[in-house]
């Protein structure tokens, strides 16, 4: 089973903005299908946007061969920069 780390829409905040989970999910599943594990979340409705990633879970999935989507890759980079700053 090929695993992808990508965003899953979780809920709707005010003004029609959505909150997202960063999840490990089978590549063939639809966006809102059952996930294997929640790795973090992303809330763009807040100012500044909130990005939370459990680095241990992320490293575990990458070590097991999971691929990150381009969006998740950029969010993880932003989260790392915020931690280092």
Task: Enumerate the strands of the largest sheet in spatial order, edge to edge or round the barrel.
Answer: 4-3-2-1-5
Looking at CATH, the homologous superfamily is Ribosomal protein S16
Distance between the termini: 37 Å
CATH structural fold name: S16 Ribosomal Protein, Chain: A
Number of domains: 1
CATH top-level class: Alpha Beta
SSE string, helix = H, strand = E? EEEEHEH
Total DSSP E strands: 5
How many distinct helices? 2
Shape: flat
Weakly predicted, low-confidence segments? none
The secondary-structure class comes to alpha+beta
Can you name the CATH architecture? Answer: 2-Layer Sandwich
Characterization of this structure:
Helix content is 28%, strand content 38%. The chain has helices at 55-63, 70-84; strands at residues 3-12, 18-26, 37-43, 50-53, 67-68. The chain has 85 residues and is of the alpha+beta class. The chain contains two helices and five strands. It has a five-stranded mixed sheet.
Write the layout of secondary structure elements.
Blueprint lengths: L2 E10 L5 E9 L10 E7 L6 E4 L1 H9 L3 E2 L1 H15 L1
Parallel strand pairs: 1-5
Antiparallel strand pairs: 1-2, 2-3, 3-4
């Amino acid at each position: 089973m090929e695993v992808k780390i990508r965003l899953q829409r979780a809920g709707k905040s005010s003004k029609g903005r959505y909150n997202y989970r960063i999840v490990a999910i089978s590549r063939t599943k639809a966006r809102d299908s059952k996930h294997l594990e929640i790795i973090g979340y992303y809330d763009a409705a807040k100012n500044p946007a909130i990005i939370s990633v459990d680095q241990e879970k992320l490293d575990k999935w990458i070590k097991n061969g999971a691929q990150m989507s381009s969006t998740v890759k950029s969010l993880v980079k932003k989260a790392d920069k915020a931690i280092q700053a």
